[in-house]
Every structure is written in C-alpha cells, then in structure tokens.
Amino acid sequence: MQQNDKQQKHRSVQFWCCPKVTAQTCSEEDENIIQSVVQGKTPSYSLESKLGDCFRAAAIRREALQRITGKSLEGLPLEHFDYDYILGQCCEMPVGYVQIPVGIAGPLLLDDKEYSVPMATTEGFLVASTNRGCKAIYASGGATSVVLRDAMTRAPVVRLGTAKRAAELKFALDVS
Questions:
Q1: Whole-angstrom Cα distance, residue 56 to residue 67?
Q2: Please, are residues 85 and 105 in contact by the beta-carbon 8 Å criterion?
Q3: Which residues pair with 109 in a beta bridge?
Q4: Number of folded domains that form the chain
Q5: Which of 35, 59, 86 is the last residue of a domain?
Q6: What are residue 115's phi and psi, to 5 degrees?
Q7: Per the domain annotation, does 91 fall within a domain?
Q8: What Gene Ontology cellular-component terms does the record carry (predicted)?
Q9: Beta carbons of 49 and 7 less than 8 angstroms apart
Q10: Of 3, 78, 93, 154, which one's alpha carbon is 20 to 30 angstroms from that of 134?
Q11: Are residues 16 and 81 located together in one domain of the fold?
C-alpha cells in the first residue's frame, strides 16, 4: 500500500471516529468490531494483531471507549501519529496521543561520560530540579552505575545508604 493510500485510509477512519459524526459513517466491518469490543466479545488489546493496522485499531478502540463511557475524546488527537512505531514498545491500547514539552537537564557525569538528559514533562520545576541534581553529581566527581540485570520488574523498593549496601543485600537475597 502506498503512503498516500495509507494516509487516505487513516483519514477516512478519523471521520467516523470523530464524535461530531454519527456511527453510520463507519464501515459495516468496523461497526461490527466496535460493537464486539463494546459487548466484551473482542478484547481491546487484541485489535492490533486482529486488524494488522495499528491506526485503525486505535481508532476503533477509541470509538468503543467513547460508547462505553459516554465521554467524548474529541480534544485528544488521533491523527498524525505513528501507532506502528509504539506497538510492543511503550504504550498498550492507545486511543490517541498528547504533546508534552521536552526540557534538557545536564550535563550528567555518569561512568566518566557526560550525558544530556531529555525530559518530557508538564511538571513545573522538574527539569530545573533535575538539572541541579546533575550539577551536584558533576561537582562531586560524577556517579558510577552498576547493572545487576537488564529487565523490567514490579517489586517493592528498598532504600539503602549506599549502592554497595544495596548490592550486598541483593546478593544475600540471591543466595536465599
């Protein structure tokens, strides 16, 4: 499928997804999928794999959500975002996106290398505070990192006085 065809296809999906347009403007196939999601017969998380079109999955999920909640998502943009790019990466079951300002903190001296730290946030003073932390770390000679394992976990947090003490606790727990 050529890029123009894909953009046109996405544009047509946007029209029926817009709350100002009635459900009669979507295709019969898409309406059936929306109804299936609303009725709980099709899990919303399965739309990308079922349809093979991440934008269409987001648009259908969005319409189903609006019908389920009775709330409009009109102010949340849907178009002009690459939903294929985030598949399996950073956001599950998307229904739109928001623009977030990005500030830069640093330099952060970590493992004898300088890093600039981009931060996407709407929290006031967060970047400035992080920048002050980077400055303090730099002034103290930098920080050293240790990777114990490269993975994602969901577990309680234990705060210890030093990284060495944390590593000792980790090794002690591994033995248990």
A1: 17
A2: no
A3: 114
A4: 2
A5: 86
A6: -130, 140
A7: no
A8: endoplasmic reticulum membrane; peroxisomal membrane
A9: no
A10: 154
A11: yes
